[in-house]
Design brief:
By secondary structure, this protein is of the alpha/beta class. It is built from twelve helices and eight strands. It has a single domain, classed as TIM Barrel, CATH 3.20.20. An eight-stranded parallel barrel has the order 1-2-3-4-5-6-7-8, surrounded by six helices. α3 links the parallel β3 and β4. α1 packs parallel to α2. It binds 2-phosphoglycolic acid (PGA).
Length: 251
């Protein structure tokens, strides 16, 4: 059985005070669960404070990005080892905003992914098509290329350690969610690609999250789909009540 993973992607939002207040509220409201794992991915500068509030709890911590080099002269960047050092268990890689605004390619994601795995971080690898790609009928092709490119060279043992997030770009921050059927269609395709890459046994264990305007009122339907194993939540993860309601839907 795959355990749901509900992760909050705070992006470049929140302050130090609101960050700590949010996780303290989550800790008050949420009981640990057998079938749902929860994590938050705050801005890097708040990882320390949020991590301190979460220490020893059932809520995990993740970074939103990392550099592929272990260290070096890369002004403004953060390494995988630094994320590990500050207490992260997860790192989001290849988010569409990174791909769009920072020109990250599948090859970049692939390089970061291998480094993340080498330090023991769980990478959440994001893929997803734009509206234009969906409307021109190339969704399946785009997803296949992103999955094969981002996961290239991984063996089944490494494959078993990753999380994939399907995030249609047109659904991110727009209030437009993929219908459960649209999402499940792509999730099933991704499961098939993972089977080709890692074999059926490993593919069956890999969590595939859906992301893109997930909210308390659409979470149950999405999470009820056979190949949807969690959610990567942006806007709705910034309020404890909304995020807790999505987690409750997973439970
Ligand atoms: P959203 O963002 O929930 O605000 O659409 C999701 C994401 O970008 O991970």
């Amino acid at each position: 059985m795959r355990k749901y993973l509900i992760a909050g992607n705070w992006k470049m939002k929140m302050t130090r005070d609101t960050s700590v207040a949010l996780v303290n509220k989550l800790l008050d409201e949420l009981e640990p669960s057998e079938n749902v794992e929860v994590a938050v991915c705050p801005p890097a500068v708040y990882l320390h404070d949020v991590g301190a509030a979460l220490r020893g709890s059932h809520i995990g911590l993740g970074g939103q990005n990392m550099h592929a080099a272990p260290e070096g002269a890369f002004t403004g960047e953060i390494s995988s080892g630094m994320l590990k050092d500050i207490g992260c268990q997860y790192v989001i890689l290849g988010h569409s905003e990174r791909r769009q605004y920072f020109v990250e390619t599948d090859a970049d994601v692939n390089e970061k992914l291998k480094v993340a795995l080498s330090v023991g971080l769980i990478p959440i690898v994001c893929v997803g098509e734009t509206l234009e790609q969906r409307e021109s009928g190339s969704t399946a092709e785009v997803i296949a290329e992103q999955i094969r490119g981002s996961l290239s060279g991984l063996d089944a043992a490494d494959g078993a350690k990753i999380v994939v997030a399907y995030e249609p770009v047109w659904a991110i921050g727009t209030g437009k969610t993929a219908t459960p059927e649209q999402a499940e269609e792509v999730h099933a395709q991704i499961r098939g690609l993972l089977r080709e890459l890692f074999g059926a046994e490993t593919a069956a264990t890999i969590r595939i999250q859906y992301g893109g305007s997930v909210k308390p009122d659409n979470a149950s339907e999405l999470l009820g789909q056979p190949n949807i194993d969690g959610a990567l939540v942006g806007g709705a993860s910034l309020k404890a009540d909304g995020f807790a309601a999505i987690i409750a839907a997973a439970k």
